[in-house]
Give the backbone structure.
Amino acid sequence: MHVAAGWAGKLIHACQYCDGPILQGSKIYRGYWYYRRKRHTRYWHLACYFDESNAYLDMNPYVPKQTGNGRPVLDITLEDRRVRKQLLNRGSYLRKLMQETVKFSLPGWEVKLASINTTYNEVADKLEPIGGVPRSWFS
Ligand SMILES: [Zn+2]
């Protein structure tokens, strides 16, 4: 829809926002669009259009656009970042260990799996304050 400011050439019966009449010769906003070769129009008072836009923008507040592509950067210190990387690697290793323990099912594998799982949960607890646990860890 295109919107343009203009003058009301005639009396318009209903404003789109307040349903009140728009007098001839007053300032209006005219919205128009074409659908199946027909021209459709809607009219607003100047102030009503502003109110409607304002209400819409209040409902949908400004969200700053993220610059660059990819995952957003975590807001943690460099030292935390180093520790987090270590913990993530450890979690990955433990996950692989759990898979292999189940896969080969050597004698006493259930006890071993339980102990690995405990360690895994400890690593997850340590990760919680520095950037949180990745979503894929417990899915
Ligand atoms: Zn109005």
Notes: Residues 78-104 form the longest helix (27 residues).
